[in-house]
């Protein structure tokens, strides 16, 4: 039986995950990868997020990332590993995380007691994460924990992100949403990425998006205006609740009081990052 308030783990995830994600939107990440000879943004992202799994090919990345067009992935993998090894990419990603967090939060926050506390709490939560059926989490769990607190916090956020993300893919399969149907229905909640952003970064065409929307309408999940029906909203709610159940262990391990504390610390760091322009202005929305 859970000892946590409803959705406490999800709220904690939502506080930590976006700060982790800032690195992939960061000019520091692009600069570090370009320094290795990887200048294409898609190639940089695939390499940066997949490097923990080693020099994998496009099939493994399409499977683990779920919502990218395989043709886009295959355009860059395994070719990117001939330019930069996974080990070099991981080192560059950590340098980018250091630069990005210092730029967005400032040295005082990075070196604060609050950051050290957040790192301790987040790492303790990861003690209850499990590897089975979680390839991205398991690969990152094999990496060493950085010594500096802000990088340890970022590393722990990575583990928690990928642990929940791997679980979310299992939940998507359980409700029968393919990669684009997942994206279309998420955008329809008002919380997902804008279609234009998705199409420009995930390798899909507008016709693919429209076809996915039509499939959702055929299932009674989307109406003619592109909004979720009552059944569609219920499916998305169940999807997130299922993900919560699969991802409950780290937060149960941490306990209600420390989950609340970590959530508060994470929200503070995230608010500062957002105020500093961490994310593109056109990232979210239904337009």
Distinct helical segment count: 17
Cα-based radius of gyration, to the nearest Å:
19 Å
Q: Structural class of the helix and strand makeup?
A: mainly alpha
User: How big a fraction of the residues is strand?
Assistant: under 5%
Major β-sheet, in short?
Answer: none
Q: Which whole number gives the mean pLDDT?
A: 96
State the shape.
Answer: globular
Strand-and-helix sequence, N→C? Answer: HHHHHHHHHHHHHHHHH
The counted number of beta strands is: 0
Distance between the termini: 41 Å
Contiguous runs where pLDDT drops below 50 for at least 5 residues: none
Write up this protein.
By secondary structure, the protein is an all-alpha fold. It is 70% helix and 0% strand. Helix 10 runs antiparallel to helix 11. The longest helix has 27 residues. The model has no long low-confidence stretch (mean pLDDT 96).
């Amino acid at each position: 039986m859970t000892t946590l308030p409803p959705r406490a783990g999800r709220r904690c995830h939502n506080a930590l995950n976006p700060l982790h994600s800032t690195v992939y939107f960061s000019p520091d990440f692009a600069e570090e990868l370009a320094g290795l000879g990887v200048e294409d943004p898609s190639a940089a992202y695939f390499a940066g997020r997949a490097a923990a799994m080693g020099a994998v090919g496009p099939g493994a990345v399409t499977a683990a990332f779920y919502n990218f067009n395989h043709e886009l992935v295959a355009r860059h993998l395994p070719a990117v590993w001939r330019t930069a090894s996974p080990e070099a990419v991981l080192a560059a990603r950590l340098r980018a995380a250091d630069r990005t967090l210092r730029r967005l939060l400032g040295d005082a926050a990075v070196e604060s007691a609050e950051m050290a506390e957040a790192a301790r709490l987040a790492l303790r939560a990861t003690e209850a994460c499990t590897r089975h059926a979680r390839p991205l989490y398991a690969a990152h769990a094999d990496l060493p924990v950085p010594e500096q607190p802000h990088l340890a916090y970022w590393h722990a956020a990575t583990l928690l992100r990928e642990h929940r993300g791997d679980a979310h893919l299992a939940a998507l399969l359980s409700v029968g949403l393919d990669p684009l149907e997942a994206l279309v229905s998420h955008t329809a909640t008002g919380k997902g990425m804008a279609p234009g952003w998705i199409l420009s970064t995930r390798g899909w065409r507008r016709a693919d998006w429209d076809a996915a929307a039509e499939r959702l309408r055929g299932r009674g999940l989307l109406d003619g205006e592109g909004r979720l029906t009552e059944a569609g909203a219920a499916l998305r709610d169940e999807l997130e609740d299922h993900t919560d159940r699969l991802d409950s262990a780290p937060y149960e391990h941490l306990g209600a009081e420390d989950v609340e504390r970590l959530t508060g610390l994470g929200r503070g760091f995230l608010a500062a990052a957002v105020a500093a322009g961490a994310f593109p202005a056109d990232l979210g929305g239904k337009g």
